[in-house]
Amino acid sequence: MMLRCFSIVLLVSLGACATGSSRPGPADGSATVCPELRPQICTMDYTPVCAELQDAGSMTYPNACSACADVKVISHRAGACE
Questions:
Q1: Residues of the chain with pLDDT > 70: what percent?
Q2: Which of 6, 19, 47, 67 is the most buried (most CB within 10 A)?
Q3: For the chain, percent helix, then strand, then coil, each to nearest 5?
Q4: Phi, psi torsion values for 50, nearest 5 degrees
Q5: What range does the domain containing 52 cover?
Q6: Which residues are CB-neighbours of 28 under 8 A, at least 6 positions away?
Q7: pLDDT of 70 above 90
Q8: Residues near 9 by Cβ (< 8 Å), separated by ≥ 6?
């Protein structure tokens, strides 16, 4: 029973990140804009992204899903912030 519950949670979390975790950003493809509906659960993979924050700052997040889960994030691009 416990394994079944874990599997369901995992599938839901993967779906939250995969379906609508981001929509296309600017035409040059440099950034991905976060959706209005933010993910609630993300995987713990490490594929760093540099996120643009509402206060005009930037911050490195471990992955795109984690970045978009933070309501202060507007968009993100691949790689850690410099």
A1: 65
A2: 67
A3: 30, 25, 50
A4: -100, 120
A5: 2-78
A6: none
A7: yes
A8: 41
